[in-house]
Amino acid sequence: MKKSLLKTIIVVILIISYVYICSIISIPENIVIFEGDNLNLKIATGLSLSSRNQQTVLTASNIGTKKIDKEGIDKLNLNLFGGIKLKSVNVAVIPKTTVIPLGTAIGMKLYTKGVLVVGMSQINTDNNEKTKPYENSGIEQGDMILAINNKEVSNTDELIGEVKNSNGNSIKIKYLKNNETLETSITPVKSKNEYKIGLWVRDAAAGVGTLTFYEPSTNSFMALGHGISDIDTEKIVEISNGELITANIVSIKKGEKGKPGEMKGTIDSGNKIGEISKNTNLGVYGNVTNKSYLGIDSNNEMEVATRSEIKEGRAQIICQLDNNEKNKYNIEIEKIYTMNNEDNKSMLIKVTDEELLNKTGGIIQGMSGAPIIQNGKFVGAITNVLVNDPTQGYAIFADMMIKQMRNTE
After folding, report:
1. Where in the chain is the domain with CATH 2.40.10.120?
2. I need a surface site. Which of 36, 94, 228, 311 has the fewest CB within 10 A?
3. In whole angstroms, how far apart are CA 250 and each of 265, 286, 323?
4. Residue 174, phi then psi, degrees to nearest 5
5. β-pair type (325-336, 313-322)
6. What class has domain 2-94?
7. What's the CA gap between 331 and 316, in Å, rounded?
8. Bridge-partner residues for 304, per DSSP?
9. Of 353, 332, 349, 408, which Cα lies nearest the Cα of 384?
């Protein structure tokens, strides 16, 4: 009986410890919020954030009620039971900003940082042997090859050339795996009088989506609300640079339950709008170089809403479904996940506009990035559609896009 009770106590202690450890780990060391917004963090009972003068800023009981009103950076301490310091937390407060929501259909060309490994294949050598030169090298699908024999490679032609010039000698390869730079070696084999290593690679990606907003103060833009992933590896493409270009909408495929719709477009004859600098899980961003193709109207400039200003209820999206024509459509914000700082599913939304439902059936591929407006403020952008109900989908908070674009997180 005593042993059983002791085991129960130990299990309870372990569970409580696990909960606290998860809560501590979940609080980042660097936090960025808008001036005047609430500090929203998941924090367990017994934990608190306090300023350097020991003034308590946040506890489990006042989450979402503490407004941060001053601009700058404040250093806080995460404490256990008020006195045991666990770690420091930097809270960067940035001033409210204004943007011009766009909703313009655009194209993107992304050029990788090195060459992306998208597949692997067995090689039939000139001696009628079957071999896998890459075997045991550590290189896998999704890795990025950066250099061969200390010479940087930026496209597939350069990689093929280095392999061809190896004459069958071992080559040293520098590659990127999960943000870690590694080195290995592969010995190319001869097949049909050419040296090969058995890796399929790609050095560029392209797509069509929606341009979310233009920020006049920095001449920058952000689009999509999610990153562009490689079609084979399904990983966010690591890029060195890219181009934002005009797109021509070809057709609209209406969505239905179990079958997402799609906006099809072409970028073959597109004109350059800007330079893409980053492809992230929260969107694609960079600088505008030619505003004339965007039809920017400074009268549409508006404030970015803080999370505390976003309400469940009616809102509008801006999107382009026909060439040279953008429209506003009605939606409902059904749920708001105020404390979400991890991904682009910050709000659950539903399309209610009959005109949009007749055209698209709801949210379709290509509408990602369509800006959401509520009470005259920019509150976020569409990111996902629910496959089983195309009238519903997710959206990202506007503040997350701004912070990502400024690269301050």
Report:
1. 100-109+204-405
2. 311
3. 5, 26, 9
4. -100, 130
5. antiparallel
6. mainly beta
7. 5
8. 378
9. 349
Per DSSP, the three-state class of 160 is: helix
Look at residues 384, 404, 348, 398 and name the one whose alpha carbon lies nearest to residue 96. 398
- Which entry of 232, 343, 353, 389 is annotated as an active-site residue? 353
Beta strands 30-34 and 84-94 are parallel
* DSSP symbols for 187-247: --EEETTEEE-SEEEEEEEEEEEEEEEEETTTTEEEESSSPPBPTTT-SBPPEEEEEEEE-
Alpha carbon dihedral 82, 83, 89, 90, in 10-degree steps, equals 90
**Residue labelled with tokens 């009959």:** 354
Q: Which CATH architecture has domain 122-197?
A: Roll (2.30)
Q: How far is CA 299 from CA 49, 100, 101, 214, in A?
A: 41, 8, 11, 13
Q: Give the model confidence (pLDDT) of 64-121 as tens digits.
A: 445 555 544 466 666 666 666 766 777 767 777 899 999 999 988 888 888 888 888 8
Catalytic member of 226, 230, 346, 399: 226
- Give me the catalytic one of 48, 50, 220, 368: 368
368 a catalytic residue: yes
pLDDT at 403: 82
